[in-house]
Sequence to fold (428 residues):
Amino acid sequence: MRSARRGLGRILAAFVLAATVAGCGPGGVHPHPGQSLEGTRSLGDLVAGAGASPVHIVYIHGMAAQVPGTSLPFRQRLCAYVGDGCRYDAKASERHYIAFGPRPPARYLGEPVWRNDADWKASRPFVDRFVFRRDHGGAVVVDELNWYPLLFPLKCRYLLMPEVELSGADAAHLRLCAAKDADGHAWLDAATVEAALAAKHPYAGGARINRALKAQLVNWGIADAVTSVGPMQAFVHDAMDGAFAYAERFEGAKADDQTFAVISESLGSFAVLDAFNSGRAPSVRRVMESTYDIYFFANQFRLLELTRLQGMPPATEGGPVPMPSLSPISALREWAASPLGLRPPPGPPPKTGAMRPNPMVRQVIAFNDPSDALTFEVPQLPGAKVVNVYDRNETSWLGLFADPAKAHLGHAENKGVLKLLFEKRAAH
Fold:
């Protein structure tokens, strides 16, 4: 028996070693084979060409966000790439809450979504502003928009709690939903959560991996996308507009006095372009019309486009024609074709012989990890330069499995991605 166990142990050890050796690690950043980065601009080019004007990066998180700090990995490395004495200015950095109107009477299966004004206040999106100064140029500003609080009451109460008696408890997120701290709100009663976690549910509980995938991908991830294309869409648009209105007013500057870039993760990419095309987000439109550069860290445009099919026939003979909201890809096309995109970007022209970024078009650089279960390529857009970039954010074991969360959310931690974002492709 002991020899059999030792033999099994050796087999398992050999398998782990083989998986380690055969695993494809993170890194590897390559443009789509049919596309090229030639003629594109980097954030490094924008900073170098902005002169004394601020370079303002609006950073928008995607699905499954749960605490502030999505931009932290990006910010931690920013000064190393920017140089020029780059340093963080804590005094100029602040948190800005986006004001909404009175609490709406929204209901889910007859229950109020926001039970009182304290609930509604806790759902306010907010912007964390981080300002970095340079010795010989304008500031680099990162405005991190946190709009996830809008989604917490729905996920916490109506998905996570019922799951305790079905697929099984998502203990970490349930406790997050009951937390009372600087960034949290008690959407669930802590005692009720602990009692639910301690209770026996003999007929419930799925297989562990299945349960974990449902908790992470569906309940805490895809639920955000479903919510954002439904009636909550108006509040998401208001969150985007409030953030861009705040960005316009940096240190008394106007939108035209700043060089803007947008970095958006996952669902955030759809949300900001959806707001741009909504007719109720004038600040988003003003800033985006003066923005040449968008960087997507995973996106769902192709998937969510399925919710906005155009030209559908009436459901019944003589019935009303369905009127879906504007297409998210049509919003990208409208942004790409905007006449303001024909202005040269700020900064002096590149020196003779240097690679010359195309000043006549806007650009989208979209990063996609092939192991990410929730990303799709951005289609080509008339009037814009679109480059889909493949990157690897997590080790792929034997080509069979990679952590789906890290594959989806790991772009800002990928050194290859950051290098591509900041490396200068034109001499100024």
Notes: The mean pLDDT is 86. Residues 2-22 form the longest helix (21 residues).
